[in-house]
């Protein structure tokens, strides 16, 4: 896996985390136990720290860029879906950022909240705990629907198990 030091900082990855061989981590990136960073994801912490908490997953092709205030943090058990951008923002525990969504500087996504696929959370916006937000710009629609709640409830465990399978079984060919 490509890990790069930048100035006086280098990535810190728990031995119990899984980082895909094509993910890139640069600078002050901290990945806790049980977390996973998937293929093609880039976590670049040159302006500020990025913390991926225990059991969180950063899916394929997503880009996280750290800012100084707040520290970019992905909460315990949270999901950043495929092809997302999280830029200088905080994502709460077990929150889910849907595929292709963008969460911008100073935004806070609450615990167990869901940002719908393709949405943009504007700088400084707050999505309260347990709420569904959608649109460009993202607006709070209300409490999680049963379908959205199912994703929030199951995704952390599904991706933790899938990361263990990849850690045990992925290998280059050819």
Give me a quick take on this structure.
With 174 residues, the chain is mostly beta strands. It has one domain (3-169): UDP N-Acetylglucosamine Acyltransferase, domain 1 (3 Solenoid).
Task: Identify the notable features of this structure and list them briefly.
UDP N-Acetylglucosamine Acyltransferase, domain 1, globular, 12-stranded parallel sheet, 8-stranded mixed sheet, mainly beta, 36% strand, 174 residues
Please, could you describe this protein's structure?
The protein is 14% helix and 36% strand. With 174 residues, it is mainly beta. It has one domain: 3 Solenoid (UDP N-Acetylglucosamine Acyltransferase, domain 1), CATH 2.160.10. Strands 1, 2, 4, 6, 8, 9, 11, 12, 14, 15, 17 and 18 form a twelve-stranded parallel β-sheet that branches. It has an eight-stranded mixed β-sheet with strand order 3-5-7-10-13-16-19-20, covered by helices on one side. The longest helix has 24 residues, at 146-169. The protein starts with a strand and ends in a 5-residue tail after the last helix.
